[in-house]
Design brief:
Layout lengths: L4 H6 L17 H8 L4 E3 L5 H22 L3 H4 L6 E4 L9 E4 L4 E4 L8 H17 L9 H6 L8 H14 L9 H13 L7 H14 L26 H26 L1
Helix pairs in contact: 5-9, 7-10, 9-10
């Protein structure tokens, strides 16, 4: 049976991370101030009660993501360039989406739970392109540009990020395409569409898998990379590749966090 509209937002999302709110309620204004998002838009059909539930869930999820990545708050808002939307600006059949023209991450009111990590990586992938690769244009995503052999801007942290993309798209120490990419292409052939094998989507799913594999769990942040119908299509990394990708992402974001901490001193 399809869960009720109320049930989707009001369901209990499992998490085992640190207590960020000390049991208190927070607001979207609190989220905006802590992470310094560019703006936050709330749909006019979102009730006060729904806003409260969503704000608490999103606050915990973003704090958990920050803890997992070991980065400061402004990395989550991508240096205050990222906007959030809840219950507004949705797309048909999409529980969440990233609008690159607006630099806005939007979650649907009743179906956005579990999609936050995926969409955040889309935003990161877009944001980092011009800082990571030469000749990047405003509309470019780093994943697609890297796959098309764009040159990396020389910097030790960028070489660490290069390793992340390399282990997503290619087999270790090889120019051969990874099983993840090959299976994503096969999934597209099965549905006669170009979606799963888009570089942006392959990388966002790899990032999801990395986040879900961490000891800190939050089902509002990410879920479904192992047991969902999509996971059974093989469009998430297998166990061996998950470990390699996790090591790369942990190393990259750790380097990034440490570099930003040194700069702040």
């Amino acid at each position: 049976m399809e869960p009720s509209v109320k049930g989707r937002l009001h369901k209990a999302y499992y998490r085992n991370g640190a207590e960020h709110r000390s049991g208190a309620d927070v607001s979207f204004v609190d989220i905006m101030r802590l992470f310094k998002f560019q703006s936050i838009h709330i749909g006019k059909w979102v009730s006060k009660q729904e806003q409260q539930i969503a704000a608490n869930l999103m606050f915990d999820a973003l704090c958990d993501l920050m803890d997992i990545l070991k980065v400061p708050e402004h990395v989550i808002s991508l240096n205050s360039t990222l906007s959030l939307a809840f219950g507004v600006g949705g797309q048909k059949h999409a529980s969440a989406h990233y609008n690159s023209a607006k630099k806005q991450l939007a979650l649907a009111k009743n179906a956005g739970g579990g999609a936050l990590a995926h969409e955040w990586f889309h935003a990161f992938d877009h944001f980092i392109a011009s800082r990571f690769l030469k000749h990047a244009k405003p509309q470019d995503f780093a994943s697609e540009l890297w796959l098309n052999n764009s040159n990396v801007i020389e910097h030790p942290i960028n070489h660490s990020l290069k390793s992340c993309y390399q282990h997503i798209f290619l087999k270790p120490n090889s120019d051969e395409l990874s099983d993840l990419f090959v299976k994503s292409v096969a999934a597209d052939k099965a549905i006669k569409a170009y979606y799963y094998s888009r570089p942006q989507e392959v990388c966002a799913r790899a990032f999801e898998a990395f986040v879900q594999d961490q000891p800190s769990k939050n089902a509002f942040l990410v879920q479904g990379t192992k047991q969902s119908a999509e996971a059974k299509l093989g469009i998430y990394p297998d166990e061996q590749q998950r470990r390699l990708i996790s090591e790369c992402f942990l190393r990259y974001f750790s380097y990034l966090g440490e570099a930003l901490e040194r700069r702040a001193k």
